[in-house]
Amino acid sequence: MRIDLHCHSTASDGTDTPAELVRNAAAAGLDVVALTDHDTTRGYGEAIAALPEGLTLVTGAELSCRVDGVSMHLLAYLFDPAEPALLAERELVRDDRVPRAKGMVARLNALGVPVTWEQVERIAAGGSVGRPHVATALVELGVVPTVSDAFTEEWLADGGRAFVEKHETDPFEAIRLVKGAGGVCVFAHPAAAKRGRTVPEARIAEMAAAGLDGIEVDHTDHDADARERLRGLAKELDLLVTGSSDYHGSRKTVPLGAYTTDPEVYGEITRRATGAFPVPGTGGA
Fold first, then answer.
1. Is the dihedral of CA 193, 195, 200, 204 positive or negative?
2. How far apart are CA 150 and CA 158, in angstroms?
3. Burial 109-120 (b: 16+ CB within 10 A, else e)
4. Which pLDDT tens digit goes with each residue over 113-148?
5. How far apart (Å, rounded) are the C-alpha atoms in residues 29 and 256?
6. Strands 32-35 and 56-67, bridge-based pairing
7. What 3-state class would DSSP assign to 36?
């Protein structure tokens, strides 16, 4: 089985619609794909309706969190999307995205970059607006060559010249909310140092004690040394180890299935979840 547990659609900052995502996942030879858009479940219906036969969909979301001033992302799988407490927190985070993006546009303007909110809004195309949309605007304007090049201290990285903070959930509260909604929690790309400061291992140990289920180890932002270190930490803390592409369509160069999760780990995730169940494809439109 080929299992990719971290993918984005146009419901947040990917370039594939949810329907295109599942069709492309099947074409890439995946057996299981997770839809984990940022702080939203808006793509579920379209993805399920288009789900090809032979492909299983894991519903999820990538939740924006912050601890000790460090931004981090928590992958939440198979939770009940209608559970009121987690829904309210997702909406709070999502609603803060627009003023935050407008703030980044204003800071870029002050730096002499002629980006406009209308440009960012067009790029987001109704999705959950975020830094990748602003970064894409910088690429369009020729300010940086790629989206990744916008995530530096010069521009949009945490603490960068055009960075603006947004509401982010305390990860311990996020773990509690996801568990309360019957879901499973995995720390996304915990050693992605090029994105900014990373969470200390001591804090990850505290999260494990609070109910964190796993850490994403095999990821394009982790080099070989980081993966080895994280595997050791996962073993020490009895955490599940996942791997995934963090696919964003054409916005990033990593293809679907570039990194995958072991079938036994996937099976354990599905066993722990009580809020929702994987959806088998029956041949979508």
1. negative
2. 11
3. eeeebebebebb
4. 999 999 999 999 887 888 999 999 999 999 999 998
5. 9
6. parallel
7. coil
| Number of neighbours of residue 96 by Cβ within 10 angstroms | 16
Q: What is the pLDDT of residues 261-277, one digit of tens each?
A: 999 999 999 999 999 99
Helix (H) or strand (E) holding 6: strand 3-7
Condensed to tens digits (0 to 9), the pLDDT of residues 204-256 reads 999 999 999 999 999 999 999 999 999 999 999 999 999 999 999 988 889 99
Chain mean position to CA 160: 21
209: left (phi over 0), alpha (psi -120 to 50) or beta: alpha
**Cα Rg of the chain (Å, integer):** 18
Angle at 53 between CA 49 and CA 59, to 5 degrees: 50
Rounded Cα–Cα distance for residues 90 and 37 (Å): 11
Question: Cβ(89)–Cβ(180) under 8 Å?
Answer: no
Cα 91 to Cα 120: distance, rounded to the nearest angstrom: 20
Q: Residue 49 pLDDT more than 70?
A: yes
Helix-helix angle 97-110:131-140, to 10 degrees? 30
For residues 37 and 101, give the distance between their C-alpha atoms in angstroms, rounded to a whole number.
17
* H/E stretch holding 109: helix 97-110
Residue 170 φ then ψ, to 5°: -60, 130
Among the residues of 33-145, which ranges form H helices? 44-49, 84-95, 97-110, 117-124, 131-140
Query: What percent of the chain is predicted at pLDDT more than 90?
Result: 86
Residue given tokens 């036969």 in the structure block: 53
User: pLDDT tier at 166 (50, 70, 90 boundaries)?
Assistant: confident
CB 52 within 8 A of CB 22: yes
